[in-house]
Amino acid sequence: MIRILGIVGSPRRGGNTDILVERVLAGAREAGANAETVYLGGLTVKECDGCHACWQGRECTKNDDMNALYRAINDADALVLGTPVYWYAPTALMKGFVDRLVYYNCDRNRGGVRGKKAAVVVPYEEDDQATASPVVDFFVRSLRYLEMELAGTVVVGGMARKGQVLEREDALLVAAKLGQELASGRGTVKAI
Fold it and tell me: What CATH number is attached to the domain comprising 121?
């Protein structure tokens, strides 16, 4: 059974990011996958200080919740990474998490992510699609560097209110379809 790990980088539960990531995971579950969600806002993920202990095969010296997340990432077949746009960037929660993926920046650990699929979910308040471009590009470059495959994106503008995405049936359907594709091992849905 395919295992999919959703990682929500929004500090607000029940918001647009949370809803969209859950729709992706619900679509994956409907297609037979095992899917779980991690909320970065409820974890302690300290900043990376570049000590490179992980590159020498040791556990991260930060001794925080990221050590358990590394195991969950290693066990997953695919990831769903969700963040709203904050000041034309991912949230501090998501940026801190991605910074800690430096753990996979060595041959010893790279196998934990190499070749895995990842989907990206990015709701944002403005209507201009260029607002989300830096965040999507951040993920594209990061995933490419980690030798992961971007399986699809759900990028939804105009999300000014908490839960507003529930009014966007098109976005919810695309998110569910992406989850189904991830569960099938394909993953080909692109931004709406």
Answer: 3.40.50.360
pLDDT tens across 161-184, in order?
999 999 999 999 999 999 999 998
- The total domain count for the chain is 1
In a domain, 190, yes or no: no
> What is the spatial distance between Cα 94 and Cα 47, in angstroms, rounded to a whole number?
11
191 inside domain: no
Q: Are 120 and 139 in contact (CB under 8 A)?
A: yes
Sheet with 3-8, strands from edge to edge, namely 34-39, 3-8, 78-82, 117-123, 149-156
> What is the distance between the alpha carbons of residues 64 and 79, in angstroms, rounded to a whole number?
20
Distances (CA, A) of 16 to 64, 105, 167: 27, 31, 11
Q: Which domain holds residue 131?
A: 3-184
Cβ contacts of 137 within 8 Å, gap of 6 or more: none
Q: What is the pTM of this model?
A: 0.92
pLDDT at position 188: 57
Q: Provide the token pair at 8.
A: 């929500």
